[in-house]
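Researcher: We're teaching a course module on how sequence relates to structure. For the next exercise, students receive a sequence and then see the predicted structure as tokens, so they can try to spot secondary structure elements on their own. Here is the exercise chain.
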Amino acid sequence: MGIINYVEIGKDNDGIKGELLEAIEKILVSGKFILGEETKKFEENIARLIKTKYAVGVNSGTDALFLSMKALGIGKGDEVIVPANSFISSATTVALTGATPVFIDVRENYLIDEGKIGSLITEKTKAIMPVDFTGKPCNMSKILEMAKKKGLFLIEDCAQAVLAKWGNKPVGSFGVGCFSLHPIKNLGACGDGGIITTNDGELYDQLIQLRNIGLKNRNEADILGYNSRLDTLQAAILNVKLKYLAGATEKRRRNALTYYNLLKEKKIREVKYVPHDEKNEFSVYSLFTIQAEKRDKLMVYLKDKGIETAIYYPIPIHKQKCFEYLKAQSLPNAELQAKMILSLPIHAHVSEKNIQFICDEISNFYKN
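Model: And here is the predicted structure for the students to work with:
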């Protein structure tokens, strides 16, 4: 069978190498490396894809979150509700604005437990940050209703979820959408990158200045800003990759369904959760994360069989040392999941035969 790699970024790029090199060569010849035409084109493409009026390219998904909160005026004395089982940037960006992340537990499917949001809202709460973890959309109907009712900003951490939808509406179009373009993401640059989506013209104008050192033109700055621009080279690469995103996403979805059917068919009682689309969901499966007993031993066993896996994430954010200054709290679902979660290879180069082998070996592990 050979090694089944967890990611295959090289293979993703190899299939379109000619187009990528052609796009890069055009930028090299033009010399327009900062905020060039390809960046503007990419922003327009993403706005069209997410069905928002505007999109702003920045240098990472982390900056997408941070700059969005700065543009919304979130800062010292404010609180933002954040799930505890996301990548650490979801919460550190809140803290770096001067605000306080208020951690919330998650449901079995790793997504924010919207039923617990109400109990965490105080007079200091300024925003809710649902995270479309693993490429699975949050219940945006309930979250949006709560945000509107309480007058809160909605900051969508869609880092792993380009093309995911709740109902017929793309994630990133409900509030301020923040996407990562890190190479490992479904839509990945050949370096770092991020993008923000919004329908708010004033917010868009603010973000355009914030990402470009506060400048409103070449020589004047009305606000203090940051250097967080999506490189034109990366934008050119992403414009090529956008053409293949729908096909790659459909392959991930087929792989996810194959995993689900095989693992359910095997009735492995030690595997407690297998990802699948629920009502109103269109998931893009950036990750395919099961919950399994004896997770660490299973991971070693699969590695010995030539199957690479990963853990996203072994330490819930509220348990990270950098947040020790916050009042200790118990978030039982996030804490339990951190001990059981295991992500299986789900990329477009995993074959049905590979998936059958992986599921057989998971079954064999528990039988033995």
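Model: If you want an answer key for the exercise: The first strand starts at residue 54 and ends at 58. The two ends are 21 Å apart (CA to CA).
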